[in-house]
Amino acid sequence: MSGVRFGTRRSAGVLRTVGLFLTLVLLILPGALFAKDNAVTAPAFTLPTANGKVSSATLRGQVVLVDFWASWCGPCQQSFPWLAATYERYRTRGLQIVAINLDKKSESADEFLDKHPAPFTIAFDPTADVARAFKVHGMPMSFLIGKDGTILYARPGFDPKHTGDMEAMIEEALKQ
């Protein structure tokens, strides 16, 4: 009988190969989805902030990291210190960060921000309309938007091992 039988060395090798392939696809896919050939313009938005409003139209011509987050999101708690450090490192070169909160209650976001202060812009999207427009499918989810308004890179979740990739993309976008 040919084929793969479970419980054999051959099936373990096949499963490892399939697992490796899927891992590589998941690592490559977020950046590949938004390669230059597949340029996707970031959805337009205007959202309230603590000090007024932020609009994608006023950010045009700048490199913008848009990060969707919520107070209940564990990885968001890990990502905020990295976002703050990244903003401080690149803001003088033109990077803007807009962290869009999806909590339905502003008190939840306020409590989170008391613990994780943000030197960058915080916007509020309690109806998740902007998140739907961006097709957010994980929390947090980050989008790097180029000066021309196209999405250069998207990544769901937060893993400190991938921050170097994002910073390399930021560096490249700021040079353009």
**Distance N to C terminus:** 58 Å
CATH topology of the largest domain: Glutaredoxin
Mean of pLDDT: 85
Which stretches of 5+ consecutive residues score pLDDT under 50?
Answer: 11-15, 17-36
Q: Total number of β-strand segments?
A: 7
SSE string: HEEHEHEHEHEEH
Count of discrete alpha- or pi-helical segments spanning 4 or more residues: 6
CATH class of the largest domain: Alpha Beta
What is the alpha-carbon Rg in Å? 19 Å
Strand content: 15-25%
User: Per the principal axes of the C-alpha atoms, what is the gross shape?
Assistant: globular
Count of the domains = 2
**Biggest sheet record:** 5 strands, mixed
Keywords for this entry:
Glutaredoxin; 2 domains; 176 residues; globular; 5-stranded mixed β-sheet
